[in-house]
Amino acid sequence: MLPLAAWSQGEPDYPQNYFRNPLDIPISLAGGFAECRPNHFHTGIDIKTNQQENMPVYAAAEGYVSRITISHAGYGNAIYITHPNGYTTLYGHLNDFYPELQQYLKQKQYEQESWSCDLSLPANRFAVKKGQLVAYSGTTGGSTGPHLHFEIRSNTSGHVLNGMLFGLPITDTRAPEARSIAVYNADESIYEQQPALIPLLKKGSGYTTKTGAYKSSSPHLYIGIQAQDYINNSTNWLGVYRMKLYLDETLQAATELREIDFAQNRYVNAYADFKTKEEKGTWYQGLYRLPGNKLDVYTDLNTQNGMLDISDGKEHQVRIELEDAHRNKAQVNFTVSYAGKTTVKTCTNTWMPGKSNALQTRNTSFVTDEQALYDRICFRYTESPSKQYYSDVLQLHDAKIPLQSSTDLGLKINQALPFDLRNKLVFIHHIKAASLPGNNPQDGAAARYDKGWAWAPVRTFGNYCVGVDTVPPVLQPLQKGPDLSKAKNIRFKVTDKMTSVKQFRAELDGRWLCFVRAGNTYTYTFDEHCTPGNHKLVITASDENDNQTVYSLIFRR
Ligand SMILES: [Zn+2]
Questions:
Q1: Is residue 537 within 8 Å of residue 507, measured between CB atoms?
Q2: Which whole-number Å values give the CA distances from 398 to 45, 191, 367, 411, 429, in the listed order?
Q3: pLDDT in tens, 416-472
Q4: Rounded to the nearest whole angstrom, what is the distance from the C-alpha of residue 117 to the centroid of ligand 1?
Q5: Ligand 1: distance of its center to the CA of 45 in Å?
Q6: Ranges of each domain in the chain
Q7: Nearest-CA neighbor of 540 among 512, 516, 519?
Q8: Inter-residue contact 319 to 336 (CB < 8 Å)
Q9: Interval between CA 10 and ligand 1 midpoint (Å)
Q10: How confident is the model at residue 5 (pLDDT cuts 50, 70, 90)?
């Protein structure tokens, strides 16, 4: 462990060794801070739990439980502990909390008649000591396997901080590894070109381009890099803490992933190249800043937002320095020169970042705000008449181009729509699942009717058309009644074809009963709320368009 004095200038003075390992097994990481994911940076570190659930989780330091959240998405079951030194730690994807807290939660769930909840707890109602058992690990919420998601946040800014900078016991002597670089023509929008993707080769202590010196047909370049970090004894790759871009020994751009403001989290789609991720499956992190990107991770940028000027035709040396949070470093060196002429593309309908852009036709309305775009696009759309749907099929630009803000999309209804279907409209949207937030990609979203048009906010380009949804969710019991005297629980699978399950309510003999949701499965585990004897359980489930299913189960416990 480095003493504070050994940190170089500019390092944050976060407390070292104040937080302990929240597990009692050595820390091995499945995911790191600020890794790029569609629509968000990963905001914590993912600590492996030996592929098991129910591993004890301990308070990383003294404090009190200030918040608990329960959801089938995101953090799943999560505890927030506020510490007296100005930080809050978060533990996510948990199964159960410690008994007193679990009891408190259950009481609140029955009071509010809601399994999912977000409870703020008064200071010191649940005080904890450093190392006190607070929960059992799991894989609840938006998790693909058992692990503990751990965050450290600042109480003053609310920002999440890089957990690797607090001296947790992590052995890390491995340097980041560079795989490939992307070279863009900076005179063109990054969305209107295919960058040159150049594989890198390990050479001596650093990396260089496999194909030697790079001859560019553009005098102005942006550089992106595919790079990953590793810690000892783990094959999982993590994000790179710091990157610096030099041209002929002069610093041009530098990034540092020290903290993330949740309000800026979606700018990951601009920080890294979303379009190339969609096309090639790989994130290239940009050593440039796009005009519509307000992310605050750039510690240095030249006056051209990281653009490299090689217009003089001479050979130039490019160097990229990579550094992880434990000061392990790697370097990429290569040569570039301008050797050609750019062909200038023309566009008759350019949409610009930083301003409102509009598509308004007889059948479509789409007027963005000033934040919607990160870089300019040559806007394209088609409207195809369809007998199958209530509107034209709109091809709205290209789903591979990211949007920062959502925009109200209006589609004109141009087929006879019975009055009683006006509140059953949906936007049908066919798109690759990777671009959608959450775990359950949907075919559609509810749309509202207004004067012959269907409206809904959308946050993705792609194709849209209007359908109707009159089909309620399908409810499938996962046990056979009526004798449940040997069963531990009652379970249902509930799915909705067009939209999502908006509401699920269970009543046992007329009183609300708490079902836990995991994905599409809803489970009630027998407890004091269901005594031995005969019972009637009634489930109602509805979708975004209020299509409702009612299901009754008479059983004996
Ligand atoms: Zn995580």
A1: yes
A2: 33, 10, 16, 17, 12
A3: 999 999 999 999 886 543 333 333 344 688 999 999 999 999 999 999 999 999 999
A4: 20
A5: 6
A6: 4-165, 177-338, 350-468, 474-556
A7: 512
A8: no
A9: 27
A10: very low
Cα 78 to averaged position of ligand 1 atoms, centre (Å): 12
Please tell me the distance between residue 72's alpha carbon and the centre of ligand 1 in angstroms.
15
Q: How far is the CA of 230 from the centre of ligand 1 (A)?
A: 16
- What is the rounded (10 degree) CA torsion for 172, 174, 180, 185? 60
Instruction: Write the pLDDT tens digit of every residue in 207-234.
Output: 999 999 999 999 999 999 999 998 887 7
The yes-or-no verdict on residue 12 having pLDDT over 80 is no
* Superfamily for domain range 4-165: Glucose Permease (Domain IIA) (2.70.70.10)
pLDDT of residue 548: 97
pLDDT digits (tens, 9 = 90+) for 90-115: 999 999 999 999 999 999 999 999 99
**What spacing in Å lies between the alpha carbon of 76 and ligand 1's midpoint?**
11
- Centre of ligand 1 to C-alpha 151, Å, is 8
The pLDDT assigned to 497 comes to 85
Ligand 1 center to 65 CA (angstroms):
20
Check whether the bond before 482 is cis (ω within 30° of 0): yes
One fold for 350-468 and 474-556:
no
β-sheet bridge partners, residue 119: 68
Least confident window among 105-109, 173-177, 426-430, 481-485: 426-430
CB contact set of 452 (below 8 Å; sequence gap of 6+): 412, 413
If one counts every other C-beta atom within 10 angstroms of the C-beta of residue 258, the result is: 22
Ligand 1 geometric centre to CA of 28 (Å): 13
- Domain 474-556 matching CATH 2.60.40.10: the answer reads yes
Measure 142 CA to ligand 1 centroid, in angstroms: 9
Give residue 163 CA to ligand 1 midpoint distance, Å.
12
Measured in angstroms, how far is the CA atom of residue 29 from the centroid of ligand 1?
10
Q: How confident is the model at residue 11 (pLDDT cuts 50, 70, 90)?
A: low
Distance 35 CA to ligand 1 centre (A): 10
How far, in Å, is the centroid of ligand 1 from the Cα of 353? 31
Count of C-beta atoms within a 10 Å radius of residue 474: 14
Q: Domain spanning 350-468: which CATH class is it, in words? A: mainly beta
Residue with tokens 């309000």, as numbered in its chain: 263
Instruction: Provide DSSP, 12-35.
Output: --PPSS-SPPSSSS---EEE-TT-
Q: How is residue 468 written in tokens?
A: 């109707």
Q: In the block, which residue shows the tokens 């809803």?
A: 522
Q: How far is the CA of 415 from the centre of ligand 1 (A)?
A: 46
Say how far apart CA 107 and CA 112 lie, in whole Å: 9
DSSP string, 104-149: HHHHHHHHHT-SSEEEE--TTTTEE-TT-EEEEEB--SS-SSSEEE
* Per-residue pLDDT reduced to its tens digit, 397-421: 999 999 999 999 999 999 999 999 9
In the prediction, which pLDDT does 344 show?
75
